From TrEMBL:
Tagged with keyword Transferase: yes
Listed PANTHER family: ACETYLTRANSFERASE
Keyword Acyltransferase recorded: yes
Name of the protein: GNAT family N-acetyltransferase
GO MF entries: acyltransferase activity, transferring groups other than amino-acyl groups
InterPro entries noted in UniProt: Acyl_CoA_acyltransferase, GNAT_dom, YpeA/RimI_acetyltransf
Location of the N-acetyltransferase domain: 3-169
């Protein structure tokens, strides 16, 4: 499977929003509270793209996945209840979503692989992320991809499980 990974642009917005709406609905069907409070939304995606932190995963030139990727930019991570493995520079990603018709093809794992490569290209060996307690797909993805549980962080008053992965070159 050959994928591409690139910065999102405003032309990508409609398909990114479609993918995120599918993910929001999937979380709802799973009985999760994650993403059921109006976040993420079109404005968040637009801001990601303006700030040049939105990235898309392409399969045969079709946008099939999305994530926002930031460097050393998650203030809530300073308030972890627990402890990070490192306190050095880190890449953090949010809003991971794969198009409904491509679920189960290993594309989320592929997306994380590209995020690891992005970190290494920026000379960063720590990748941090978080998810809801009731998101078994993402929790499993963290486990399969070498992430270590570090504690809890809070977003919009909700606790989230926080993870870190140390990269090796």
């Amino acid at each position: 499977m050959k994928t591409e990974f690139r910065k999102a642009n405003q032309k990508d917005s409609p398909v990114i929003w479609k993918i995120l709406k599918q993910a929001i609905e999937r979380r709802k069907k799973d009985g999760s509270n994650q993403w059921q409070d109006g976040y993420p939304n079109k404005d968040v995606i637009s801001l990601d793209i303006q700030k040049e932190v939105g990235y898309v995963l392409l399969l045969e030139n079709e946008v099939v996945g999305y994530s926002a990727i930031l460097i050393n930019d998650e203030p809530e991570y300073n308030n972890i209840q627990g402890a990070w493995i490192t306190n050095e520079g880190f890449v953090v990603y949010h809003r991971v979503a794969i198009a409904e018709e491509h679920i189960g093809k290993g594309l989320a794992k592929e997306l994380l692989k590209h995020i690891d490569e992005y970190a290494i290209q920026n000379n960063i060996m720590s990748v941090k992320a978080d998810t809801n307690f009731d998101n078994p797909a993402m929790l499993n993805l963290f486990k399969k991809n070498g992430y270590k549980y570090c504690g809890e962080v809070f977003f919009r008053g909700t606790p989230r499980k926080a993870f870190e992965k140390i990269l090796e070159v």
